[in-house]
Amino acid sequence: xxxxxxxxxxxxxxxxxxxxxxxxxxxxxxxxxxxxxxxxxxxxxxxxxxxxxxxxxxxxxxxxxxxxxxxxxxxxxxxxxxxxxxxxxxxxxxxxxxxxxxxxxxxxxxxxxxxxxxxxxxxxxxxxxxxxxxxxxxxxxxxxxxxxxxxxxxxxxxxxxxxxxxxxxxxxxxxxxxxxxxxxxxxxxxxxxxxxxxxxxxxxxxxxxxxxxxxxxxxxxxxxxxxxxxxxxxxxxxxxxxxxxxxxxxxxxxxxxxxxxxxxxxxxxxxxxxxxxxxxxxxxxxxxxxxxxxxxxxxxxxxxxxxxxxxxxxxxxxxxxxxxxxxxxxxxxxxxxxxxxxxxxxxxxxxxxxxxxxxxxxxxxxxxxxxxxxxxxxxxxxxxxxxxxxxxxxxxxxxxxxxxxxxxxxxxxxxxxxxxxxxxxxxxxxxxxxxxxxxxxxxxxxxxxxxxxxxxxxxxxxxxxxxxxxxxxxxxxxxxxxxxxxxxxxxxxxxx
Length: 496
Ligand SMILES: Cc1cc2nc3c(=O)[nH]c(=O)nc-3n(C[C@H](O)[C@H](O)[C@H](O)COP(=O)(O)OP(=O)(O)OC[C@H]3O[C@@H](n4cnc5c(N)ncnc54)[C@H](O)[C@@H]3O)c2cc1C
Prior knowledge:
The protein is of the alpha/beta class. It has three domains: 15-57 and 120-197 and 296-372, FAD/NAD(P)-binding domain; 200-294, Alpha-Beta Plaits; 380-493, no CATH class. It has 13 helices and 19 strands.
């Protein structure tokens, strides 16, 4: 008989530091709280207790839509979150109650098993922050703390520097947003910088919060102009406090004006009157606030051949999308989920963690990135690395626009894909293509008939390579189809 003696070596508790307490930082902290003994979130901003826009996240004054995929992850991490938001005034907008104008007509009413929960971005962020702190006892958040730099020792990131003092961590996650300085700092000490893809869109938002004085309108609306002509768009959605948020957007220098009358005229220039009508019968609660974004920008961290253990980057720092598709927060949640899986597999301290996470993150970012890129290139002024096959797909999109006016099943499929809840390839099955073909002929919009042969068939699509792009495949086609504004569905305004 042998006696096995087990020595229980005392395990050193693990610490993760997350830089940034915006949406990416919060969901990252939640995902890591299952794997680290201590998670410390640091933000340079003063984090307000109330649901108000804060200085370092200026985009939070604008319409923020949480796609179905993000909503599901958040509800899983924070059970009861949606109910909590509703109790604080967030408004449920079923897809069929959303007035959705695109391609010259309103789309057919349809539901897809997901409901948009409409609220201000600050309400979502503060509620998630409160839930994180109350649910995860191993998470702390410190505000007014600006991280000055990473501590790099013997080829490993071992912590962060704040006010000249080093704080040790087994893993540092950089959620400091689109303009992160930390990858540059690593480049300064000899690590390669990731390749960057930038798609030039010159997007400009103008947003105003209003309170309707009188009258009824739809429960929410989005209006999208033809991207090959004006490429203007706008949304109006109810948010907490009986208020509505109205956002107008233009591209390539066509910025919504801040003057109230000119703003209303911009709304009136849209091809359907819902937004202008709401502005007419409302009291303005804020001035018109603007935000510009010159490019959609993706850092290809998955291509890095060398990156120090103890550090990963996540959220907008990896990929900052054209916001009209409403993907940023959901992409951050999907990335945080991927990080949780990578840590579960390799451990917080593993030298293999970064590579494994970056591979997973690239997969989840790829879908929304291609969706946004495909749609952005419908505007002929857009420049940058264009996914192969985009132009070909756009011919099919013309049919999908028409089909969405007449067919609830087509709208349903689009909603699922645009909410990142179904693979884009589901839009390209023979049955769906046939449905699109038949339904498009029932659209109320009078159009010159398009020849059936204009519809690209994925299997016979060319396999050539454009520079800087992947080879064409049905998946890519479907992505663009899913997202293109002309496809009868605006991803950032997807009703769930
Ligand atoms: C106009 C606009 C509209 C948008 N609409 C939508 C939408 O409808 N739906 C959607 O899902 N997404 C939308 N987005 C994207 C969304 O805002 C982001 O994807 C989301 O906030 C996640 O970003 P992040 O947390 O990675 O970075 P950010 O939100 O930029 O946050 C970075 C955080 O890091 C902190 N920080 C930075 N440097 C330091 C430092 N050195 N030390 C400590 N802290 C630091 C900052 O204070 C900040 O809190 C929109 C974006 C814009 C610009």
